[in-house]
Amino acid sequence: MKEENPIAYLCKLSRLELTAEEQQKFQQELDTIVRYFDRLQEVDTQEAEFLSQAVADLNMLRTDEPQNSWQAKNILKNAAEKQGNCFQVPKILEG
Amino acid sequence: MELWELSALELGARIQRKEVGVKEAVLAAIERATAQDKNCNAFITLCAETALDKAEQIQSGIDNGTFRGPLAGVPVAVKDNICTVEVRTTCGSKMLQNFVPDYQATVMDRLEAEGAILFGKLNMDEFGMGSTSETSFFGPVKNPLDCSRVPGGSSGGSAASVAAGEAWYTLGSDTGGSIRQPCSFTGTVGIKPTYGRVSRYGLVAYASSMDQIGPIASNVSDCAAVLNIISGYDPKDSTSVRRPEEDFTRGLVCDVRDLRIGVPKEYLQQGIQEEVRRAIRKAADLYADMGAEVEECSIAMTEYAVPAYYILASAEASSNLSRYDGIRYGHRTGRDSDLDTLYYQSRTEGFGLEAKRRILLGNFALSAGYYEAYYQKATQVRALIRKNFLRLFQKYDLLLSPAAPATAMKLGESLTNPLKMYLGDVCTVALNLAGLPGMVLPSGTDAKGLPIGLQLMGNAFSEKTLIRAGYSFEQWSVHKEPAGKKEANG
What we know:
B: alpha/beta
């Protein structure tokens, strides 16, 4: 990668914190795997479409009808920190 | 004969005939799983209490004729990435070890409507990422046929539990072979349906454009009966396909005389264990003996399926797993001095090695400067691979190949070399890229007695043909050993 420390950049994009040792290990593995990925450059894809879904014409829409929604108290059951009917997060505004 | 030795349909028939009570079946399931699973580690959660509570209700439904389906009252266990209401759904990850969904997957609604009783959640590679079921936070699953070996993955628990006779049938999910390869390693039968056939609503996403839920059982008939229940249009899944209902059990016919079967030579080339190659050739000969038209064929681009798959699957995974921020659900760090620390620490503590590796890889393939060369290129290669399959299906009704290049490997062998593990998916990933259906069933064993899986690949929505071909093979095969159902040996 162009960045000075590519693995550190990827960790930032991924919101993952790795030790220096882990970074080194992942960097080596990723280098090997990406070199393998580079094989795809051999394929002539000039005429090929971009297929991001297995079935290209697939995207079924349904009518937008009101339905029962989930109860806030049930959704909050899985949150580690909550206050009243809200998820609790660390302070994000100064002052 | 013990209850665990029956097939799912046999048990269902006995329940309908009142020879076996639903409670008796549930108790047998719990007892068997508790005793056998010490060797296998196929289960993450057993829900004995809720299953027993449910048993009475289902029994009265059967008694009064509400539940008449062939699998009513038969206990089921499902892969732990399928959301089950009020039963924790961990995905084999520390991140979700305490996650108890308030809703459930559409497949669970469908099973319940047919009188199925959930009795457990099955172990798996973390978030479906792995081919050996060793990346689970809850410890590796072991192959019941040889506990020093892996059961395959990521639906290792789903396949191992069937092979060990701990479950009559299970659900797994297949993103790059995660139903088919573990079936191959454990001598069980599994179907990866056409993309869009079975609702993904409530399936925790790994690579959404390829994920598909499917059945695993000890024989083709059970799989067909389960597929009948779980498939169908679901408005809650925008990629679910609206099609007329099909009865897959009508494919349970022993006749392949009208079928044209191609055997792609690329799937039998170097890197394939000799005994696997021989077993597949033998299967091809058997189909010819049964009257099918069988010939060798060629499918281009197969060598590019693994790299294209790993780029796309990792890219989708990195996006899908970005939702785990420690706030709404999932693991939350105790060190949350500010928002960034909360994100970083929760994710770093909650994800295992393989999940982290794929998040990093995915973000690499999607990052500025690399997106075109990797992600976009892979989508184009995917289009070409699909095109090649579709071209071949103009000529053949189905293709026949191994499900894995080798039989089950020893525990621990794949963990040190991720690329080697990825390469082991060479027989299965192309079908996921193309969105097509596949089926795996046992086709003999190697010298060590380890099962070899035969893969049948079909055109979109051709599951009934696959079932017919699979059923015919099962009936005709000289290899008459039942699929799995063995005592796990410690």
